[in-house]
Amino acid sequence: MLIEQIYTGCLAQGAYYVESEGECVIIDPLREVNQYIEKATENGAKIKYILETHFHADFVSGHLELSKKTGATIVYGPTAKPDFEALIATDGQILEVGKLKIKVLHTPGHTMESTTYLLFDENGKEYCIFSGDTLFIGDVGRPDLAQKSDLTIHDLAGFLFDSLRNKIMTLPDTLLVYPAHGAGSACGKNMSKETYDTLGNQKMFNYALRANMSREEFIKEVTDGLELVPPPYYFPKNVMMNKTGAKDVDMVKSQVQALSPAAFEAAANETGAIMIDTRPQQTFKNAFVPNSIFIGIKGDFAPWVGTLLTDIEQPILIIADEENREDVITRLSRVGYDNIIGYLDGGVEAWTAAGKETDSIESISALEFAEKFKAAEGKILVKDVRKPTEYSAEHVDDAMNIPLANLSKNMTEFSKTESNYLHCASGYRSMVAASILKSRGFDNVVDVAGGFKAIAETDVPRTDFVCQTKMK
What we know:
Layout (H helix, E strand, L loop, with lengths): L1 E7 L4 E8 L2 E5 L6 H9 L3 E6 L11 H8 L2 E4 L10 E2 L5 E4 L2 E7 L8 E6 L5 E7 L20 H16 L7 E4 L17 E2 H7 L9 H9 L11 H10 L4 H6 L2 E3 L1 H11 L2 E4 L3 H4 L8 E2 L6 H8 L7 E4 L5 H10 L5 E5 L2 H7 L8 E3 L1 H10 L5 E4 L3 H6 L1 E2 L3 E2 L18 E4 L4 H12 L5 E4 L2 H5 L6 E2 L9
Parallel strand pairs: 3-4, 4-5, 5-6, 10-11, 13-17, 14-15, 14-16, 16-17, 18-23, 19-21, 19-22, 22-23
Antiparallel strand pairs: 1-2, 2-3, 7-8, 8-9, 9-10, 11-12, 20-24
Helix pairs in contact: 3-5
């Protein structure tokens, strides 16, 4: 028996390769499927099943392409209604893979078709579960992502309570839990950085699995605070792409054109494309194509694209270092942003060599910020673009919390006459915010390099969260 977790950090997503006696299954595959085919080929195995735990919202799955290339059967749990041929398994159905058996456990709650797969080893012993978004390490799937449903969030949370108590918590404590996501995913709110654990540990440390928890307490705790962190705009679109089928990722890549500076500029003007600069933030701030926005490849690139670009069909132009260009395209396609027109051939260096203007963003150190803050006796405009939970823990005195995800809804909170000092936790999100504000005509933004982590090392006055009205 071979079980391999194939973890993709930028999406905090875990796919799984399970093999026995020359047969294998792939669970929750990403869109670029050749990696799974190559692994099976190297091992002399045939992919028999592609198991989907649910219709994913946070990435485009590779199930259709993988099935087309290998002939493997796509499997969903009960109530799933895909627009393509698939095995809709019944609750309790057994799938055989070599000497292994996989039992289908219908575990609705995160979504109504959500399914957990229970693996029995060669000796018939319950070995592990592939829990999808039903059970994470330290958390459970949020119940507010179901699409076009008459059920309320509280209804779904109730279903999730039943699924956990009746289907999962009755299993042996020694069982390994392999979830679909880890910390950083928007599919939960309290996920651990660990990517697997035993069920026994989760019963002890996962707040949602407390033995003495009532149904009402569970619903309240699981739904609490979800309104403060709404799911990214692209989630519903990804669900539909996974239900109906997405085009081959190789087709997406083939359409991306290398554009000269003149052609790049013309494309931006003619199509209204968003120009995304993915270079390191400290490089970006010094010189960038005017009106381009920074979303660095080294951060949570795809989730932030999905959060900030509300139209999944939005034309996109890329500015990237050559060694990262293909990775940028791959990551965009993983979350369904397929309308990538092209990239700036030669990068910003080619742009400046062509005699075209660049823009820049003022960035100061935390120490400089502290000096300005004290000199002005705190009477400067400080905008904290972290999440409300981060802000509530500790923040600069009188700073206004405008989370990056809500930036576009709060443009009137920024001044066009006074300097707006922006910070996040470490500098990535504040540079994204500064670039967006620049593109909207705010020329007086100042990024605080190093973010709150660096500010906390100065003597700038800070306070715990006091008044909810400060949150935007």
